[in-house]
């Protein structure tokens, strides 16, 4: 393993992970995430690519340069394994799979989101409705402007050639990758484990430096944060592996990072309860009372997209607190209001 957390992970290049496995960061223009990692697994039969990048000319060119550095071309790709149906993971994989005639695999839980995205690549009004429900109408103009600025003309959302099933094993040359359903970040999110090599291709389920967002999808389950925490516990019960996330450098321990994420959400639950106890009544008001990012920024200091994500995620914490009996939920004119409930109820557990 040749990378450390101190490196600039998003710089263009082909970074060795282990024998025959490479990390390739691809650009995400106009996105605070900067880059997305795709992983290339070399075999005698061809290449397996895990996640595909955003289907933009700059991304395609960088991907082809990366392949050339290892003496390959796109024609060597035999299959794409995609962790979930967000644009930075799915759209370039889908375009290349159609062009090359190779296999494209995706979790079956993404089928509803794909259908909605084919109808409206912006996601329609689902995110607007979420902000309205959270009492965050003041964020909607910024959100709409952010949407207008996003290039969507090259995005296509076809169904994959094969839907993934939980605990399915996928042959990749001499390797066997185990596909593990991890709903939460999206309903159909999957991770891929090379248990013999000790590698976990984690997509956006476990990220080394940032906290994955929850419920940012066109179709969403009732309690996505509960699903996310359950999925963290599921992966934590597996052997510890090297963490190969979609955004950020390689990290040495999936267990260590999962433990950090669980503690983070436990702390957010406590902050939500305190904020409601102090008088915050909507998800927007609660989010406005909490610090954000490692720099402890205020909600008003976040970019429009990140501010919207923060409020929606806060709403998910509040929903789960209500489901566990810690808070009371009441809908008033399309806005959800929260108030303290019985003090004896326990916080939602994320220990699995």
Automatic annotation (TrEMBL):
Cross-referenced Pfam families: Lactamase_B
Ranges for domain Metallo-beta-lactamase: 35-247
Q: Which SMART domains match?
A: Lactamase_B
What protein name applies here?
A: Metallo-beta-lactamase domain-containing protein
């Amino acid at each position: 393993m040749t990378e450390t957390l101190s490196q600039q992970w998003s710089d263009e290049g082909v970074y060795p992970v282990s024998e025959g496995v490479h990390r390739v960061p691809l650009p995400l223009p106009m996105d605070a995430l900067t880059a997305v990692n795709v992983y290339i697994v070399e075999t005698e039969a061809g290449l397996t690519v895990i996640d595909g990048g955003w289907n933009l000319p700059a991304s395609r060119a960088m991907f082809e340069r990366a392949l050339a550095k290892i003496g390959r071309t796109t024609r060597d790709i035999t299959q794409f394994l995609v962790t979930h149906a967000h644009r930075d993971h799915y759209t370039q994989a889908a375009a290349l799979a159609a062009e090359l005639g190779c296999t494209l695999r995706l979790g079956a839980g993404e089928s509803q989101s794909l259908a909605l995205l084919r109808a409206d690549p912006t996601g329609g009004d689902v995110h607007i409705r979420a902000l309205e429900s959270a009492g965050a109408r003041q964020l909607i103009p910024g959100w709409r402007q952010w949407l207008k600025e996003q290039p969507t003309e090259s995005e296509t959302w076809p169904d994959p050639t094969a839907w993934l099933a939980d605990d399915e094993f996928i042959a990749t040359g001499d390797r066997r990758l185990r596909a593990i359903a991890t709903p939460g970040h999206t309903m159909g999110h999957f991770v891929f484990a090379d248990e013999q090599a000790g590698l976990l291709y984690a997509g956006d389920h476990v990220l080394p430096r940032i906290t994955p967002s929850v419920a940012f999808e066109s179709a969403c389950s009732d309690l996505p944060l509960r699903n996310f925490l359950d999925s963290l516990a599921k992966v934590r019960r597996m052997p510890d592996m090297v963490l190969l996330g979609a955004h950020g450098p390689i990290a040495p321990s999936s267990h260590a990072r999962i433990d950090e994420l669980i503690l983070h959400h436990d702390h957010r639950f406590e902050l939500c309860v305190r904020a409601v106890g102090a008088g915050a009544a909507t998800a927007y008001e609660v989010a406005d009372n909490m610090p954000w990012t490692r720099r402890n920024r205020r909600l008003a200091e976040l970019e429009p997209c990140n501010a919207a994500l923060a409020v929606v995620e806060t709403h998910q914490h509040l929903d789960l607190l209500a489901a566990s009996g810690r808070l009371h939920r009441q809908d008033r004119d399309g806005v959800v209001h929260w108030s303290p409930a019985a003090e004896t109820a326990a916080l939602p557990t994320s220990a699995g």
